[in-house]
Amino acid sequence: MTFPASFARLARRRLLGAAAAVALSAAFLPAVAPDAAAFQIEGEPRVAFIYAATARDGGWNEALDNARLKVEEELGITIPIVESVPEEATALQNSIDLLAQRGFNVIVGTTYGYSEGILEAAKAYPDVAFVNASGATNHDNLEGFYVRSYEAWYLAGMAAAGASETGTLGILGGFPVGVVNWDINAFALGAQAVDPEIEVIAVYTNSWWDPAREGEVARALLDEGADVIANNLSSSAPFSAAEERGAYSIGFQLDMSQHAPNGHLTSVLFNWDQHLLPTLAALKDGSWEPNPWGAFPSMADGVVSLSPVSDAVPEEVRAQIAAVSEQIVSGEFSPFDGPIHAQDGTVKVAEGARLDDAGLWSMDFLVRGVTGSLN
Predict the structure, then answer these.
(1) What DSSP line would sit under 196-234, residue for residue?
(2) Which has more confidence, 32 or 211?
(3) Where are any strands of DSSP class E within the chain?
(4) Of the four, 33, 91, 257, 326, which is 20 to 30 A from 171 by CA?
(5) What are phi and psi for residue 272, nearest 5 degrees?
(6) Domains of the chain
(7) Which burial class, exposed, middle or buried, applies to 58 when counting CB atoms under 10 A from its CB (0-12, 13-18, 19+)?
(8) Taking a C-beta distance cutoff of 8 angstroms, is the pair 210, 203 a contact?
(9) Backbone phi, then psi, for 107, in 5-degree steps?
(10) Contact, 200 vs 370, CB < 8 A?
(11) Mean per-residue pLDDT for 329-356?
C-alpha cells in the first residue's frame, strides 16, 4: 500500500499541530526545545521494527524495510521485525511489551495508525526510544517522522513535461489530503517550469490500495491524451497500463522501473535509512532531542530523492533537473516559492514568499493548470 489505511487522519492531526505552531508567538516556539532534554539509550542500539502488514508489500512498508536492511548492513547488527500487527492498541502493546522485555531499546513503528498506542508505550517504557514513520504523536522518547516528498515530485514533473509529446500528463493520488495535494501540485509546478502550457490531469482514487481501480484510472487518463502517467500510489497497475499503450510512467517510494521497463522515466524514492542512521547515532551519543512537531527531513538530508532520469527526457531538461535539484538542496529554491495560484486564480503564495509547514500540511487546493477536483 502507499500509506497506512488511516493516513488521511495524519493530515488532519498534522494540520492541528502546524496551525497551533502558527498561532503561538514566535517567542514561545523556541522555548519548547530547552524543555525537551536530550535522550540517550543505555548500551548499544537494539532495534526492532513493527509493521501493520507484510514488510515486503511493494510500497510503503517495503521502502521502510529496505532502510532496515541498509541499517543492518551499515551498523553490522540484526534488526528483527514483527509483521501484521493491527493498528489497534492491545495488539500493538502486546508486541511492544514482548520486544521491551527482550531488551530492545529502539522500536520503529511504521504507520500513523500506531500513533496513540506508541505514545502510551513511550510513557510506559521511558528508557526505550520510539520512532514512528508517519506518526502524529511525539514525546520525550518518541518522534514521528515523514519527508518533504514534494521536493522530488517537482523534479519528476520536469522530467514528465520534458518527455511528453501530447502536452498532457496524468497523475493518480489516494485521498485529497495535504501530503498528496503537495505532491500533485509540485508535480504540476515542475512540469510547468519546463512547459508553461502543459496540462496535468489529477484523479484521486479515494483509496490507498486498489490495483483494479488504479489501472482503470490510468487507462482513462491515457484515453484523455496523457502520455505520461505518474503514480502517487504503490500498485503496479498504472505502470502496466502505460506500458501497454506505449506511454511513459513515473513511480513513487521505490524504483518502479521493473514494472515499466520501456516507459519508466524516474521514481520518487524514500531513503529512510538516511533518517534512521543519524537518529540511531544521536540516540547512542545522547544528543537525540525529539522534535515536538515530529521530524520532517528533505532532499538535503538524503531522505527523498529521484532515481536516475531516463534518456527519453531530453538532455537539456535533464540538465535543468540537476540544476534545480541543487537549488532545492541548498535551500535557494522551494517548489512552493511564490507566486502560486490556485485553479480559480486565487493567490495562495505571494511573489517573494515561501509556503511554510503549516501551509503545506493544510494544503487544500490544486494549482492553476491542473484539471481535476478535490471532491
Answers:
(1) TT-EEEEEE-SSS--HHHHHHHHHHHHHTT-SEEEESS-
(2) 211
(3) 47-50, 81-82, 106-109, 129-133, 142-145, 168-173, 199-204, 228-231, 248-253, 264-270, 304-306, 340-341, 347-349, 370-371
(4) 326
(5) -65, -25
(6) 7-148+272-301 (3.40.50.2300), 150-269+305-371 (3.40.50.2300)
(7) middle
(8) no
(9) -120, 125
(10) yes
(11) 98
**Cα dist. 17→24, 54, 168, 292 in Å?**
11, 30, 37, 9
pLDDT digits (tens, 9 = 90+) for 45-83: 999 999 999 999 999 999 999 999 999 999 999 999 999
If phi > 0 it is left, if psi is from -120 to 50 it is alpha, else beta; for residue 340 that is: beta
Nearest to 215 by CA among 225, 201, 199, 203: 203
Cell of 210: 486498489
Distance from C-alpha of 293 to C-alpha of 19, rounded to nearest angstrom: 11
pTM: 0.89
Distance separating alpha carbons of residues 180 and 308, to the nearest angstrom: 23
Secondary structure (3-state) at 253:
strand
- Distance (Å, whole) CA 190 – CA 195: 9
83's grid cell: 509483521
Q: Is the pLDDT of residue 214 over 80?
A: yes
Identity at 327, one-letter amino acid code: Q
Q: Are 50 and 56 in contact (CB under 8 A)?
A: no
